[in-house]
């Protein structure tokens, strides 16, 4: 609804206020390979000091540094929208006219916004726009001519971050004294104040753009991503960026990542070899194996190598082998001093999503995604087999209880109760797991789901996940398969590693589990805390509610 019209509040839809002299619907999403087109801002407590149910323009006080921070975003070409819950309208504490006077005062002090989106409802209205529901984010993206995944929302409470995530947008939490500690713990991205949030948004946006082109043409690029399926999948966008700037891409991966490597677009050839300084259960370093690996890497005849790692892994041992293999342009992230092992030594702050972290290394090596390629996870279509016909129509919910690291798996008794609750709510549930997880999937599925344990390899699982209306899964490979297919995720996320780095990327997500549990940031492979408290307390009804937030209804539809 436009600000210049009278407003009989529609019960279930957000109100859109675009000023009359601005286009009410923006241009089509830019195909430029940037992370963000738009920044969405919560109003009270984020842009201006929170005065409860304020209908008085005289009481509008911007937070410190707001005007300059917003102007930085405007200069950078980002569009701005305000997304705000104003239940004071539903409760009759102020009128629509008073609210518009407040908004006019906000624009007088902070400059113009490209759109205003207001939820006028109360919690009791059951609307789909009151944050943490994602409706305002969807409406803002539509109004600004982009998609939620190209938006980042800044807010001061968990409802803001929840709404962003449920729409597949990024969310930055800027806590105030009223922000609850558990909301801070659960947020994947936290900034100290609005100017700091803006600075980091602009830094991340800039970091995926190469500042210099590669020095000389790249015929063959060797890219490296060791470790598990999830690690390989989140590196996909960066590998596509390298592939866009190289004639041929050879990927070195480990045995545990091989199945995922087969699914990645842009890879021409795969070398599989374990790296004892990366593998979680490494064998001894074998001189002959290292010698033959070095020879094999030399035979690739690469003009450039880009070594991708996680924040706790070292690229340097491999860089030494690559030097010995004769490769003279090597790029990697390294906080440790690399001496002459690296030509591009890249550094990234903690907390950046793994796909962006890798994209920023590709950029430092001179590569970016081609125009039109979104910075999202993708799989090769020709590598994913047809879904088994006996699974019925699409629209089921996949529950994947296991994980290669038991610290990140859902306790079977919790998974069993989740299956029961989902079935009671009318969802059709498929329980998936690897060959070594059959006992667990059989037990969990007995509560009302279909047991697919051990029936698929990773590509087959990708096919099943792609036709789901949602997946319920821990921090493990299938969450990233879902992200690649655009399938919403209920993330039962053990906080052993940062959610902001490893959470499902650019896909509608609801996070459940205790983000402040004692296993937080331990990187433990098996839970160090008796009772696995981060996930054992997940309430199955919260999973049902999460699916509702993600607009996944029981009975098959999405
Ligand atoms: Zn609403």
What is this structure, in a nutshell?
A 6-stranded mixed β-sheet has the order 1-4-3-2-5-6, with helices on both faces. Strands 9-8-7-10-11-12 form a 6-stranded parallel β-sheet, sandwiched between helices. It contains 20 helices and 18 strands. The protein has helices spanning 66-75, 87-90, 96-110, 135-143, 158-167, 181-186, 194-207, 229-234, 236-244, 258-261, 287-299, 316-324, 354-364, 412-424, 438-445, 458-466, 477-485, 499-502, 533-536, 540-549, and strands at residues 15-17, 38-41, 79-85, 115-119, 151-155, 170-173, 218-225, 246-253, 269-272, 304-308, 330-333, 344-346, 397-400, 429-431, 450-451, 470-474, 489-492, 509-512.
Description:
- The structure is a single chain.
- By secondary structure, the protein is an alpha/beta fold.
- Helix content is 32%, strand content 15%.
- The chain has 20 helices and 18 strands.
- The strands form three sheets. It has a six-stranded mixed sheet with strand order 1-4-3-2-5-6, sandwiched between helices.
- Helix 14 (412-424) packs across helix 20.
- The longest helix has 15 residues, at 96-110.
- The radius of gyration is 24 Å and the shape is globular.
- The two termini are 26 Å apart.
- Residues 1-12 and 18-30 have low confidence and may be disordered.
- Zinc ion binds at residues 14, 119, 121, 127, 129-130.
End-to-end C-alpha gap = 26 Å
| Tally of contiguous helical segments | 20
Class per helix and strand makeup: alpha/beta
Indicate the proportion of strand residues.
5-15%
Strand order of the largest sheet: 1-4-3-2-5-6
Give the overall silhouette. Answer: globular
Task: Detail the poorly predicted runs.
Answer: 1-12, 18-30
Total beta-strand segments: 18
Largest sheet: 6 strands, mixed
Q: Classify the helix fraction into a percent range.
A: 25-40%
Rg estimate, integer Å: 24 Å
The ligands bound in this entry are: zinc ion
Overall residue-averaged pLDDT value: 91
